[in-house]
Description:
By secondary structure, this protein is an alpha+beta fold.
Amino acid sequence: MKQKQWVRHAGLSLALISSLAFAAEEYKERGVGDVVYVPTPQIVVDEMLSMAKVGPKDFVIDLGSGDGRMVITAAKKFGARGFGVDLSDELLAESKKTAQSQGVADRAVFIKQNLFETDLSPASVITTYLLPSMNEKLRPKILSMKPGTRVVAHDYTMGDWNADRQKTLDVPEKKVGTAGKSHIYLWYVPARIAGRWQSQIQTGSRPETWEFELDQRYQMFDGTARIGDQKLPLRSTRLDADQISFQFLARAGDNSSHHEFNGTVKGDVIEGTLKRGEGATQKQLPWRAKIVQRAAGKQ
């Protein structure tokens, strides 16, 4: 894999400018125009694919694929399929030749294409080694993908979208970025949940309408539940790709009752379970919510 670094990128730190200057000198003959090619060390490639739990059912798209090592490794070592995109004819030719020699040319394909114009919809895993400005430019497109899509990046983040997991490796031979260290970031595309949802909850002889107002910031959210005249803050909120959970305490006379919701977001509906009460008196009920008004959220 490679890193496409724009040498004239504005706002870089002095340390990063220095590392880019080194990269430009060392790799200038293999870039395209002002783009500098820097390969991801193989130990980092292996760890990125392991962190993303890549397997035979996955389709990997590598944005800025360089010598092809990311997609070739995904195919040969992890059994996946995928393609890489790049603008360098030399690197694309090298990638195709290596894929052929490694026996994975049918599962590791390389395309000459602008990465911002690439159709990402086939991917279950996206990999990048791009500067933060480029990652952030890609971010809206990535966030529109299927919930649960994994995104794994070398060294650079997605701006204010915090990673779900991150790891630092010792890589003595690495000279670009933080010398001797590689940072790996992993995200899961979250479901879109911001807005107002309604549920019919069986509380007695007939169902009641409960409403949930959810405010989302990427994989983080908070909100309230409205039950009759009660407006209750949600607690222990969690969103993992399309898996949602939250809790609240509802008043019943002089007592409070614990409510725990767990479900799967399926577009405009959430389906799962509601646990009411605690201990021996706890009841588990089916739970279904439907979106009635979408909100923008930070997504």
